[in-house]
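Trying the structure run again after the queue cleared.
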Amino acid sequence: MSKKILQLAAILGALSVIIGAFAAHALKTHLDPNQLEIFKTGVRYQYYHTFALLGLGIICLHYPHRFFKLSANLFLIGIICFSGSLYLLSSRFALGIESWTWLGPITPIGGLFLVAGWILMFLGISKIDKEYKSGIEK
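Done. Tokens:
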């Protein structure tokens, strides 16, 4: 489990750099400052949660609790929904997808997945003392 989470963090980290560089160089001539700022918010949140995944993967090396795997899955879904919708919303005029108004509600749903991932991480960490120090592994 930890290997997959760490690999996911590595891929998402690389994508964060690529997407951020793309925004800084290729998109700044096609997006207005407000749209570019929205795009950068998506990159920033992708970075934050990539680091959260990295931390989860490291924790799972020692404490492979199911809450950590669930947390990682929620972070992935949240990144796709939250950051992905911001990428598309901010560049929809440049991409010719102005009619995709359904993207707006996807962003807060992605945010809820991110929050749920943090809560499950907390719950998993809370289980460490109780379950792992007594020799029970879940």
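The longest helix spans residues 33-62. Worth checking whether this holds up in the mutant runs.
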